[in-house]
């Protein structure tokens, strides 16, 4: 069981490339070229930052979601119905739709639309809304892919813009935006970075399999992030748990045995769990425990559903000092939006 209490503090999330997440439940393994009779499907407001905000709100945290979307967009309607009315910047274009094909064993295939390009005026408006909301907040979360045409270093720009507000910054992104963020220098380094194993391998210049098979290489990759100014690294490993590295040490966590229904949004729920524990004043090992428990609970749910507090069981998570031993094998499924 999990308590949802926090000691206070507000979280602001920015989802530059939000989506409506349509989950299609397959009756068996995906067969290319065949016909599938789908099970009960669902549509939920999505994008990685939106998922983080939904998971935080489900646990009773004070959270605001910033999104580029018209006030009449179905995404905004859905979030408002969940009691999470977002701060919006209009674009005049409907939010994209992402599709997840989920097989009975939890294997998930994602088909993501590219999203709407944001012109300079929209980006400036989003920056103003974000920094305004960040004033007095405990955390600002920049999460997910960037829309087409967005400068690759935009997250670095936003980290610098948020710094004067006093809020701490967490970033979860991949590929070119992640590389640009890490290349921007210590003044753009987030307080918390949440890569998965594939993303960490990309920035380390190696393969995911090689990284996870070599604890020395894994530690070197994490230390390189710290050397670049990142204070904390939450490395999620799918079904193999996660690693948290801070100035106080390194911890690894193994999740409880979970019947995986969908991996979509599980990493976002892990980040939300870490933030919830931080808001409650928990030490690093307990932040990691809550992160893994929340991510595991999300993986046991269909689609991109986020867990309620009673579905999260931190006591079932095993946390130990140091890196995982033996090194984990990469779990199936991706958590990218």
Structural account:
The protein is of the alpha/beta class and 337 residues long. The protein has helices spanning 48-58, 74-81, 120-134, 154-162, 175-183, 197-204, 208-213, 215-227, 266-279, 284-299; strands at residues 10-14, 19-25, 42-46, 62-68, 87-89, 96-102, 108-112, 139-143, 168-172, 192-193, 232-236, 242-246, 249-254, 318-321. The strands form 2 sheets. It has a 10-stranded mixed β-sheet, sandwiched between helices. Helix 4 (154-162) links the parallel strand 8 and strand 9 (168-172). The two termini are 29 Å apart. GO terms for molecular function: ATP binding; phosphofructokinase activity. This is 1-phosphofructokinase. Residues 98-111 have a biased composition (Polar residues). Pfam families: PfkB.
Q: Tell me about the largest β-sheet.
A: 10 strands, mixed
Report the CATH architecture.
Answer: 3-Layer(aba) Sandwich
By CATH reckoning, the class would read Alpha Beta
Radius of gyration, taken over Cα atoms and rounded to an integer in Å: 18 Å
**Whole-number count of domains:** 1
CATH superfamily: Ribokinase
Number of strands: 14
Structural class by sheet pairing and helices: alpha/beta
**Oligomeric state:** single chain
* Model regions low in confidence, pLDDT < 50 over at least 5 residues: 1-6, 327-334
User: In percent, how helical is the residue content?
Assistant: 25-40%
Gross geometry? globular
Order of helices and strands: EEEHEHEEEHEHEHEHHHEEEHHE
Can you give the mean pLDDT?
92
Report strand %.
Answer: 15-25%
End-to-end separation in angstroms reads 29 Å
CATH fold descriptor: UDP-N-acetylmuramoyl-L-alanine:D-glutamate ligase
């Amino acid at each position: 069981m999990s308590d949802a209490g926090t000691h206070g503090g507000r979280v602001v999330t920015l989802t530059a490339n939000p989506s409506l997440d349509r989950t299609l439940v397959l009756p068996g393994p995906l067969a290319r070229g065949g016909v599938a009779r789908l099970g009960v499907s669902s549509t939920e407001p999505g994008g990685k930052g939106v998922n983080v905000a939904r998971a935080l709100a489900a646990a009773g945290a004070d959270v605001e979601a910033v999104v580029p979307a018209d006030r009449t967009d179905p995404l905004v309607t859905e979030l408002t119905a969940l009691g999470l009315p977002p701060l919006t910047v209009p674009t005049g274009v409907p939010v994209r739709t992402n599709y997840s094909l989920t097989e009975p064993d939890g294997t998930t295939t994602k088909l993501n639309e590219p999203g709407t390009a944001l012109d300079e005026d929209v980006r400036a408006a989003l920056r103003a809304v974000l920094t305004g909301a960040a004033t007095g907040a405990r955390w600002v979360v920049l999460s997910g892919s960037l829309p087409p045409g967005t400068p690759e270093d935009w997250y670095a720009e936003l980290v610098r813009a948020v710094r004067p507000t006093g809020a701490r910054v967490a970033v979860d992104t991949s590929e070119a935006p992640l590389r640009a963020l890490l290349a921007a220098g210590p003044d753009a380094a987030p307080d918390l970075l949440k890569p998965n194993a594939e993303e960490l391998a990309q920035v380390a210049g190696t393969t995911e399999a090689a990284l996870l098979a070599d604890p020395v290489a894994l530690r070197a990759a994490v230390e390189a992030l710290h050397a670049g100014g990142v204070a904390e690294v939450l490395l999620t490993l799918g079904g193999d748990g996660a690693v948290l590295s801070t100035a106080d040490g390194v911890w690894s966590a193994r999740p409880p045995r979970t019947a995986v229904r969908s991996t979509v949004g599980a990493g976002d729920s892990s980040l939300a769990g870490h933030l919830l524990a931080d808001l409650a004043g928990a030490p690093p090992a307990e932040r990691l425990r809550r992160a893994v428990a929340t991510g595991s609970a999300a993986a046991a749910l269909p689609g991109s559903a986020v867990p309620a507090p009673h579905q999260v069981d931190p006591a079932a998570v095993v946390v130990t000092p140091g890196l995982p031993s033996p090194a984990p094998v990469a779990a199936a499924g991706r958590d990218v939006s």
